[in-house]
Amino acid sequence: MTRTNLIACLLLLISSNVMAQFTVGTQVRPRAEFRNGFKTLNGDDRSPAFFIEQRARLFADYNVEKYRVRINFQDVRVWGSTNQIYSTDPNVVTNVYEAWGLYRFSDLWSIKIGRMAWDYDNARFLGDLRWAAQSRSHDGLVLSYNKQESGFQLDLGGAFNQVGFEPAMLSDTYYSGVNNYKTNQFLYLNKKMDNGKLSLLIHNDGRQVAADSSLAMRQTYGITGTGKIGGLKVGGEAYYQGGKNANDIDVNAFLISGYIQLNAGGTPFTLGVDYLSGTALSDTEDRAFVPLYGTNHKFYGYMDYFYVGNGHGQGGNTAGLIDVHLKTKFNTGEKSNLAVNTHVFQSAAVLYNPTDLSIEESKYLGTEVDLVYTLKMHDNVKLNIGYSQMFAGESMELVKSTGSSDSFNNWAWMMIDFNPSVILKEL
Prior knowledge:
- By secondary structure, the protein is mostly beta strands.
- It has one domain (3-426): Porin (Beta Barrel), CATH 2.40.160.100.
- The protein has helices at residues 3-16, 396-400, and strands at 21-36, 49-63, 67-78, 92-104, 109-116, 138-147, 152-160, 183-193, 196-208, 215-229, 232-244, 250-264, 267-276, 321-333, 336-346, 351-353, 356-361, 364-378, 381-392, 409-418, 421-426.
- The chain has an 18-stranded antiparallel beta barrel.
- Strand 16 (351-353) and strand 17 form a beta hairpin.
- It is globular.
């Protein structure tokens, strides 16, 4: 093919993609962490940890009038955890974070299918977990109705999971070896109004019961709303969970949350409370609400003592949580700010003396203070520096079963986020 013919073919290709947009972008996000009582209490036999974890992503997004395709590759590793010269290494995670296609049936209806993040409202129950280096994504589909003029959105989503590769899958669909749901369905409704919004979520997930081939189905019903009353911004959430957990035990749990935000001279002050029901030693059913697929790091203290990959409770149960918090953010410059969050934690379930179960112990677990400094170094470069301190109560020992409440528990971190993208073609 001559150079002239090649140029002509390229011009024909470009001209045929009217209203097309092709975007490519990348992210490099190293984060250094000093952990000294992070997630659980310190003890005499435990020394601090220090490491640097890095996430790198490369994505491409092609969007035309009738359809859109997005692929997002990521590499997650701790510095030095792999050999300098290697062909395979178990200490690195390289995978596809997103790989989905979206087809628009009309201006109102579309379907999205593939590997994607489900991130709704404030990410309390369905969130993309963007703080974690690996984040969270689902293999599934979402049918959407979105009428922007009236501010109404309806999403119907679902997934069916299995392990293995073809051609070995000839019989049975028993799901094992992966900490995930077997099946998942949800209905999400959202209505935007002049002074706020209101959302409804109906969610069902089925977990494979280890003892047999049955599925334990757990249902979650939630309502979320935000609005303004005078100069105050207010918000609230209520969730109920029923059905069965993965151990085929009856679930009867709830979450109630609310906040009030006052803006004083450009500085917001938010006072809120989260109540997540819990299971006591004396309970015969599972009364612990589980924010299954939410971004929990965002809500219950940045030191991740609760609901982030570690348990808290007695006898293998989750004790639930009462979190009274005060949050604010001060501008420290034209491109910088300092966020200050204070949490006072209590157990929602009754706690007992482990040597005498007739004695009830204090529900107070501790107080956590989180500081985060943010500096916008460039349009696509951001620096974060954080420090957190846990002032643990004696009952924290009961729900963590390790370490001492008298120990010094803190966490410090620094993260820089390079996140540029570029539109290669727009016609």
